[in-house]
Design brief:
290 residues; eight-stranded mixed sheet; 2 domains; Rossmann fold; N-(1-d-carboxylethyl)-l-norvaline Dehydrogenase, domain 2; alpha/beta
Length: 290
């Protein structure tokens, strides 16, 4: 088999882009999707549509799967001929799932003679194929090394997290937690802006401007947690205890939704009561470990 061949299973929004990028880079691309007509435009550009998932797997050494979730992936694994077709293949699983999903999928692939690499794309479809596109990967070192040329076609910002297949899924959840937490705070901030008659688009621009500084602060706090030394170095916990209480009080006085500030203020109040107020902000993790 050529080292410029790939099979792509799953033609959702991300799968379509993945297949198109491989075509653009001169790969022989074999496709499979439950709804075959989703492949029509790619077939017109030179891709080959397999009649079954098993046929797609047999067409290339490297197969990239990107479907809705692991239930969809498991349904594909259960299809006629798929288990046998896995023998000798390298499956790059880009479907979003949990650490347990990744461990189970790797075990299933190994039982059927396949190498397995877990991946987590941290970008939107229109951000794929760039030099800075972030992609997390985990699995056996040798498998990663073999799959890396295929991954680099899709994403220049690859981070290999080690041999535990579950690592990419776990780190994906950790980064998503950061994103959703930030988004909740941003939306509450938008309500403050609306209530005060501010331009919310301008609020968004201001937030974008402080993000690099905030990112550096989070990196510092991560280092503090890893070191275990919570001596005040950047931000005393007590400042955040008082700040989150002010945010909650302002929301109450304005009559806007208080769910987010009540949650945040409650956590910091508990941390202060536990004697953490005189430590670095990152010491809040001690409360979350309980």
């Amino acid at each position: 088999m050529s080292n410029k061949e790939v099979s792509v299973l799953g033609l959702g929004a991300m799968g379509l882009v993945i297949a198109q990028i491989y075509l653009d880079q001169g790969y022989k691309v074999t496709l499979w999707n439950r709804t075959a007509d989703k492949a029509d435009a790619l077939v017109a550009k030179g891709a080959v549509l397999a009649r079954s998932a098993a046929e797609a797997l047999r067409a290339s050494r490297v197969a990239v799967m990107c479907v809705y979730d692991y239930r969809a992936a498991d349904a594909i694994f259960a299809m006629d001929g798929v288990a046998a077709a896995m023998d000798g293949r390298l499956l790059v699983q880009l479907t979003t799932g949990s650490p347990r999903d990744a461990r189970d999928a790797e075990a299933w692939a190994h039982r059927h003679g396949a190498a397995y690499l877990e991946g987590a794309i941290q970008a939107a479809p229109d951000q794929m194929g760039r030099s800075d596109t972030p992609l997390l990967a985990s699995g056996a070192q040798g498998v990663f090394s073999e799959a890396e040329p295929w991954l680099k076609v899709l994403a220049g910002g690859i981070v290999y997290l080690g041999e535990k297949a579950s690592a990419a899924a776990a780190m994906d959840l950790a980064t998503l937690s950061t994103i959703y937490g930030t988004m909740l705070g941003f939306l509450h901030g938008a309500r403050i802006a609306e209530h005060e008659g501010f331009d919310v688009a301008e609020f968004g621009r201001i937030v974008a401007g402080i993000m690099p500084t905030f990112a550096a602060f989070l990196q510092h706090e991560g280092s503090v947690i890893q070191s275990g030394d919570f001596t005040i170095s950047q931000s005393p916990m007590r400042i955040s205890v008082e700040a989150t209480q002010r945010i909650l009080q302002a929301a109450q006085e304005a009559g806007i939704n208080t769910e987010f500030p009540a949650f945040a203020a409650g956590l910091f109040k508990r941390a202060d009561a536990a004697g953490l107020g005189g430590e670095e902000l990152a010491a809040l993790i001690k409360l979350l470990r309980q």
